[in-house]
Structure formats: C-alpha cells, structure tokens
Specification:
Chain A has 219 residues and is of the alpha+beta class. Chain A is built from four helices and twelve strands. Chain A has helices at residues 60-81, 87-100, 144-155, 174-191; strands spanning 13-18, 22-28, 31-33, 36-39, 45-49, 52-58, 108-115, 121-126, 132-135, 137-141, 198-205, 208-215. In chain A, 51% of the residues are buried. Classes of the chains: A alpha+beta (219), B alpha+beta (254). Chains A and B meet through strand 4 and helix 1 of A and helix 2, strand 10 and helix 3 of B.
Chain lengths: 219, 254
C-alpha cells in the first residue's frame, strides 16, 4: 500500500491587491480532493485583525491550523501591547510561524492583505516555508499561474530594478480593483479545475471591512 | 517546485517527508479491518446517518454485524469509515470527553460543533506525529443555539481535512452518493423523504462498491435524542437477461 502521505492539496486560489487607501483580498470557496469536490462553500479567508486579512490555499488541515495559530498569537499580542496587530507586524509573525515548521512545513500558500500603519494598502505574499515580500498585488494557489500574468499586465507593476524604488500600489479605484479581481477569478475558473463555485471578496479600508460573494462556474 | 505533493486523496502514495522512527517503535502504515462508506444528510427534524454493518479484512468480509454509527453525548451521532479499531479508540476518547464534560455539572453539554472541533484537532495532531487514526468521521447533531435549534453536519478525515455541509459521504460514497444527494437534497425534508433518499444512495453503493454488504443501519438525531434503528436489508434486482445464462454466446473456451 505504501507509506501514509500527510499532505493533500485541497486546491483553490487566493488573490490580494493593494490600493492607496484600501486592500482587496479574495479567495474561491471550493474545497477539492483528487478529482472530487468536497464542498462548494468553504472559506479560505481569516480575519486576523481589523485591518489585516489572510487568505490561504493548499492543504486545508494545515491552513486551518495555521490560521488558528496566528489568531491565538494575535490575541496574546493584544493582551501584551493593548492594541491590535498591524499588518506589517502580522506579516513578520506569519513568516516566522511558517519557518518554525521548516522541516515539516505547513502546506499553505498565503497572501496577507490589509492597511499598514499609515493607512495605505499593503499585500504580502509567501511561500510554504515563510519567505515573503511586500508587493502591490499577488496571487497564490492552483490558479495563481493563470492570474499573475493578467494582474501584471493590468496593474502595470514597476520594475524592481528601478532606482529610486517605485511604489507598486495601484492607483486604481476600489471598485475597479474589485472588478479586476472578479475578472481574474472568472478567467482562472475556466481553466483550473480546482478553482470555481464562488469567490469571496473582502475589501478593507478606513471604515472597516466589507465582504461580498460572487458566483463562479461550478464545473 | 520543492513541495509539489501528489494531488490525489488516497494517502497511500509514497511520502517525500522523511520521518525518523525510534528503535522498536512503529507507525501506522496501512489499515487492516475497514468499514466502507457512511452517508448523512440534514432533514427537517435533525440529521439522518446511514451505513452498512460490514467490516472487511482486505478482500475478506470478516465481520458482518458491526455498528459503525454511535451516539455521542445527548446531541450528536458519529459515523466512521476506515480502520475499525481506530474508531473504537476514538469512541474511548469521546467517552472520556463526555464524562469530564458531564462532571463539570454546569448544565452545559457538548454539542456536535464542539465534538467535531475536538475530533478535528485529534485527527490533525495524530497526523502531525505520523501515526494517524485511519478513519473518515462523520459528525451530525442538533443543539439549541442563539438562532434556535441548529442542525450541524460535518466530516473530518485522517489527515485533518474538515468541513461542514448539508450532506456528507465518505469513501466510495463521495463518488457514488454525493452526486445523487446534490441533485435531490432539499431543505426541510420529512423523515420519510430523507430515508428514501438515503436508501437510494445505499442501493447504488451496494451494487457498485465491492466492500459493501446488504445489511444497513439508519440512525437519526433530533432534539429528542439519538435513535439507531435495527439493521435491515434492501431489495436488489438481479433479474437481467445477461445474468441468466452468462456463458451463452461466448466463443470457445478463450
């Protein structure tokens, strides 16, 4: 029969886009295993702090454990510092938490989005073992390879080689960014079997966070 | 990419993660005595759960009267497929859990959501130690919550993947029963309608799952408590012309 495999890929895609005073974080709600769909209505998004939202895809057991772990650490931070964790602080914590299990990783592909301490949109993108980078936008998961080229084209990311460094945060309006997210999800759903059913879109801005769900193709 | 793992859910393919075993210790490699599918769905008064009463030892049908659905506390039912001895171990853990909860004597009792959460953590932690409980568990129940009587139905598998749904099936049921349930389930079915739908799924599994047997138990959980009905069989139809004389029309001995 062969040895037991502690991982499985439950599929799905996560995206985040940072704007001048908002951040859009979105993920589909399909949970798959192999060629089966387990459920069409499973959230991959965790609200870790009021201006900080994490979307993760990969192995759902690890994703849920990771999100629970971070939530608990955030609560301890609140008790110790008498304030909620900022997005950049959570970004570092997530990186450290992932690297802690460097030799038995959380099979989770993360995108962290929110507002930084200046109220500007920020997006942090990760690999499974914690290496991370602050960017203007990112996609992770099974449909990421289908989405990133479209995002690169539409959001016109400045070259990282430019000096002085240019801001990657998009000048697009909040509604334009949300429309772009809907478009990339519709596109990825066409060709990625693990992406579809519904997309949950969370927008974080000065007044708090707002959530909407859009139907996607169910095949 | 370094961490591309096989996408399929069989958990039996070669693992790329090296796990050092101490001398004289062993870890679960594969299951021995296994139960097949469990199916469950929410209906008007609560949750209905059903499975067959067989337990196989590889390809041998070793045990024919095994109860794979049990009541947990006052509000829940648990059904298990996979390694039967691991299910018995889980029932022992749940006994300890419900006993210590009862001993608080604070008028509170564990609902299905809490039991599901507990089981998820147990399964995930065992997976982390490379010593899994080789089961897929179905947890259903009804408990009064802030919005009135709340029905709950969820599943957790051997590596800790878990979710909630209106209808659940494990093992072969995922492939054969879920399509039927997705097409025909609706909100607030009566008990009779729910049983009919469950029997339709059980029949398909009986015909097409090699490890299923024609002896089933249906259980339900409502606000009045858990009821596990005595085992019974379904009528099957084998009167097809092609089965009458199977070798008719066969050319030669090869």
């Amino acid at each position: 029969m062969g040895r037991f495999d502690p991982y499985e890929n439950n599929g799905g895609t996560c995206v985040a886009i940072a704007g001048t005073d908002y951040c859009v974080v979105a993920a589909d709600t399909r949970l798959s295993v192999g060629y089966s769909i387990l459920t069409r209505d499973h959230s991959k998004i965790a609200h870790l702090a009021d201006k900080c939202v994490l979307a993760s895809s990969g192995f759902q057991g690890d994703v849920k454990a990771l999100q629970k772990n971070l939530s608990a650490k955030e609560l301890v931070y609140e008790h110790n510092h008498n304030k909620k964790m900022s997005c950049p602080a959570m970004a570092q914590l997530l990186s450290n938490t992932l690297y802690y299990k460097r030799f038995f990783p959380y099979y989770a592909f993360n995108v962290l989005g929110g507002l930084d301490s200046q109220g500007k949109g920020c997006v942090f993108t990760y690999d499974a073992v914690g290496s991370y980078e602050r960017t203007g936008y990112s996609a992770q998961g099974t449909g990421a390879a289908l989405m990133m080229p479209v995002l690169d084209n539409q959001l016109k990311s400045p070259s990282p080689l430019l000096l002085p460094a240019r801001d990657a945060v998009t000048p697009l309006s909040e509604s334009d960014a949300v429309d772009l997210v809907k478009d990339v999800f519709a596109s990825a759903t066409e060709r990625d079997i693990y992406t579809g059913d519904k997309v949950e879109i969370v927008v974080i801005n000065r007044s708090g966070s707002h959530r909407e769900c859009i139907e996607l193709r169910k095949d | 990419m370094a961490w591309q793992q096989p996408m399929d859910g069989s958990h039996a393919s070669g693992s790329k993660v090296a796990a050092a075993d101490g001398p004289g210790t062993q870890r679960t490699q594969y299951p021995y005595v296994t139960g097949t599918s469990v199916i469950a769905l929410k209906y008007k008064d609560g949750v209905i759960m059903a499975c067959d009463t067989g337990a196989s030892y590889g390809s041998t049908l070793r045990y024919k009267s095994v109860e794979r659905i049990k009541a947990v506390g006052k509000h829940s039912l648990i059904g298990a497929s996979g390694e039967f001895s691991d299910f018995q171990e889980i029932l022992r853990y749940l006994d300890e859990l419900t006993l210590s909860d009862h001993m608080w004597d604070d008028g509170n009792s564990l609902g299905p959501k809490e039991v599901h959460s507990y089981l998820t953590r147990v399964m995930y932690n065992r997976r982390n130690k490379f010593d899994p409980l080789w089961n897929s568990l179905v947890l259903g129940g009804v408990k009064k919550g802030p919005k009135g009587e709340e029905k709950y139905l969820g599943m957790v598998n051997m590596i800790g993947t878990h979710f909630e749904e209106n209808h659940i099936a494990t093992g072969f049921g995922n492939h054969l029963a879920i399509p039927i349930l997705r097409a025909e389930w609706c909100e607030d079915m009566t008990f009779e309608e729910a049983v009919k739908l469950v029997e339709k799924c059980l029949l398909v599994l009986l015909y097409r799952d090699r490890s299923s047997i024609n002896k089933f138990q249906i259980a339900k959980i409502t606000t009045e408590g858990a009821t596990i009905y005595p085992p019974y069989s379904l009528k099957t139809h084998w009167g097809f012309a092609a089965f009458e004389n199977p070798s008719k029309g066969a050319v030669g001995s090869w």
